Amino acid sequence: MNGWLLAGLIIGVVVVLTMRVIGEPLNWRDLLAPPIVLIIIGVVGMANFEELNGGDVAWVVGGSVIGFAFGAARGATVKLYEKKGELWQKYTVWSLVLFVVGVATTFGFGLVAVKFGMHPEARPYQLAIGISFAGEAAVLFPRGLAMDAPFAKDKERPWDKWAKERPWDRLNR
Questions:
Q1: Which of 21, 131, 153, 157 could pair covalently with 67 via S-S, beta carbons 3.0-4.6 A apart?
Q2: What is the domain partition of the chain in residue ranges?
Q3: pLDDT digits over 78-119, tens only?
């Protein structure tokens, strides 16, 4: 993986963790979209690896099970509460402990996999992170539905405004 891409991915994870430690609104798009996008990117990267073999796939599946399990366990430790009439989430100390232990376990599993013949390039970081956040979402989504407060409204993003405009409106400016 490109060094800049890896640095960007690490910065992104640190930002997400920081926001969740502080506490942030829990909306369904932020809960579901990042894992889906990261998993798709990871699967495409894996599929484009020309030397991919069955052993690589087996190791990735094993690592994915571990990552999903740690994500689900982490999701069970997240504090859900109502604030401003909406659902919010906040990581607890246990959430952070499970994040660190999950990363260490997945990393260790990856080292063992490479030692036993897995191609290191067949294990995309995006897939591992996406699977972990998918495990968390698999627990948080039903927990959120069971709460009295509704999921937070989606925050408007710059591209939402652009998507609402008609293309010819941009030409008339």
A1: 131
A2: 33-152
A3: 999 999 999 999 999 999 999 999 999 999 998 999 999 888
Nearest Cα to Cα of residue 41 among 129, 153, 150, 152: 129
Residue 148 is classified by DSSP as S
pLDDT tens digits for 19-49? 999 999 999 888 999 999 999 999 998 988 8
Q: In angstroms, rounded to a whole number, what is the distance separating the alpha carbons of residues 157 and 164? A: 11
Question: What single string gives the DSSP state of each residue in 20-87?
Answer: HHH-EE--HHHHHHHHHHHHHHHHHHHHT-TT--HHHHHHHHHHHHHHHHHHHHHHHHSEEEEETTEE
Burial 147-169 (b: 16+ CB within 10 A, else e): eebebbeeeeeeeeeeeeeeeee
Rounded to whole angstroms, the Cα distance separating 28 from 163 reads 20
Q: Is 7 exposed, middle or buried (0-12, 13-18, 19+ CB in 10 A)?
A: exposed
Q: What is the total residue count of the chain?
A: 173
Going by C-alpha positions, the residue among 89, 68, 101 that lies closest to residue 23 is 89
